[in-house]
Amino acid sequence: ALGENYQTNAEGYKEKYRQAEELAAAGSYDEAVAIFGSLGAYGDAKDKVSEVTYSKANALAAAGSYDEAVSIFTELGDYADAKEQISATTYAKAEALRKNGKRMEAVDILEGLNDWGEARNTIAEIGHDYLTEGDMDTATAVCARVGDLPESRADLQTAADYYIGNTDYAKAIAAYGAIIDDGEAAEKRDALQQELYARADTAFSARRFDEAETLFAELTDYKDATDRRTVSARKGLLDAKYTVGAAAIFGSYEQDNDTENGLEPLEWIVLRRDGDKALLMTRYAIDTMPYRSSEVFSTWETSSVRAWLNGEFMDTAFTGAEQNCLLDTQIHDRRIVLKGVTYPEGHLTNDKVFILSKNEHTLYTKKFRKAEPTPYAVANGAWTAPNGCCYYWVRSQTIRNEHYGLYVSSVGNFNWYFARSLTRCVRPAVWVDLDAEGSGF
Fold first, then answer.
1. At residue 82, what are phi and psi to the nearest 5 degrees?
2. pLDDT band at residue 398, thresholds of 50, 70 and 90?
3. Distance CA 312, CA 75 (A)
4. Which of 42, 162, 259, 326 has CB 3.0 to 4.6 Å from 352, enough for a Cys bridge?
5. What confidence score (pLDDT) does residue 337 get?
6. What pLDDT sits at residue 333?
């Protein structure tokens, strides 16, 4: 400062004031501000500090130093139209970015200006430019920011039509949804969602799960589409994984004859699919068991193997959750006549675990009929042929002799042997619900 005796130095103040004005006019704003600031209360020196600072900000904006200019206008607070200049300078920056090809950066800046001047109209123009260039995704994203403007509404409708033509329904729905306060667009969006949902539901019912998943994915936040997409994906995976002939791991049973290391996972073969249901049979003959324990003739209903499978075996091999996945299978033994004697017809049974009949083997096991016994089954007396395969029981009754039971031989043929034999094995079969909770499939 020049001190308290400024009146005696009037000429000095005047000269410094003149110098500051010349510096400001020459664009040396910082030096001018420093001098005006040093003049204290002399004349309008204080006002000149703000005036020159304002001029500096304008000069910076004109030179393309937009951020620095905005910073200075912000510091000026309520001086003149400094607040208005913040928006004007920001807009100028956005326009410069647009001209330099950085249009999305420009859009982000313009959106921050809210309703200032031409900011929103410029966003609409940029969106239209993208549309004209064929960049529908970017055009939709930009126009969606000003979806209430007539120009953007029209462009969003054009984009929606384009997406529908290219079966990109999710984007079409999004484009319709971005059109603000347009009843017709909302109706078109709703109609498209309803149509897609119906198509997805039809595909799901027909077990075309990949198609259903794709269509449900197009319907974000519509009804239960998200949940049904998840279900479709899971069912699609199940269908792809558990095709006929595929392997499945389910339950556990002693197999390696080393009881100290616990039970081993049971490996099954998928023999048939019916919706979410699958018919499985163990890959190996897992244990020995007589078809019946007494000399008295018995049907499947009263057989020892049935009692074992649906009792001890089921409780050993399957957890509670796994047992919930086992489906009841209705089995009915037909009446047979042996040597003029009619033997009783078996009653209808509902079994969780069973062995296949001769007819079922004929239908489903041609490629999988021969079976090797597990080491545990061998230790329990399983007879093993030179080819490593064994004999295992068939559910069907034989008309050979009331004392015999039908079995599959080591070469895959059907034969008969004493039903009380302890050398024949068992290959359990089950119908399961692959999609049941806790199934592990």
1. -55, -40
2. low
3. 86
4. 326
5. 43
6. 66
3-class state of residue 62 by DSSP? helix
Judge whether 290 and 419 are in contact, CB under 8 Å. Answer: yes
HSE of 407, CA atoms in CB hemisphere, 13 A:
30
The dihedrals phi and psi of 212, each to the nearest 5 degrees, come to -60, -45
Q: Are 80 and 54 in contact (CB under 8 A)?
A: yes
Q: What is the DSSP string of 155-177?
A: HHHHHHHHHHHTT-HHHHHHHHH
Distance CA 398, CA 414 (A): 10
> In this structure, are residues 45 and 17 in contact, taking their beta carbons and an 8 Å threshold?
yes
The residue whose two tokens read 């020049």 is 2
The mean pLDDT value of the chain amounts to 91
Which residues have CB under 8 Å from 343's CB, separation 6+? 297, 299, 335, 336, 337, 397, 402
- Under DSSP, is residue 197 helix (H, G, I), strand (E, B) or coil? helix
CA distances from 165 to 144, 159, 211 (A): 20, 10, 18
| Residue whose tokens read 């069907």 | 396
- Angstrom distance (rounded) from CA 208 to CA 203: 5
Q: Which position has the token pair 């086992």?
A: 326
> Which ranges constitute the DSSP H helices of 242-356?
304-308, 314-317, 320-323
Within 10 angstroms of residue 201's Cβ, the number of other Cβ atoms is: 15
Longest dimension (CA), the chain: 149
Quote the distance between the C-alpha of residue 209 and its chain's center.
13
pLDDT the model gives residue 338: 45
How many other CB atoms are there within 10 angstroms of residue 267's CB atom? 16
Q: Which range has the worst mean pLDDT, 67-81, 85-99, 260-274, 333-347?
A: 333-347
Cβ atoms of residues 256 and 264 within 8 Å: yes
* Amino acid occupying residue 347: H
Q: Which residues, 6+ apart, have CB-to-CB distance to 438 below 8 Å?
A: 321, 322, 324, 325
What distance in Å separates the CA atoms of residue 239 and residue 236, rounded to the nearest whole number? 5
Instruction: Give residue-wise pLDDT tens across range 353-378.
Output: 999 998 899 999 999 999 999 999 99
The 10s digit of each residue's pLDDT in 75-84 is 999 999 999 9
Residue type, 193: Q
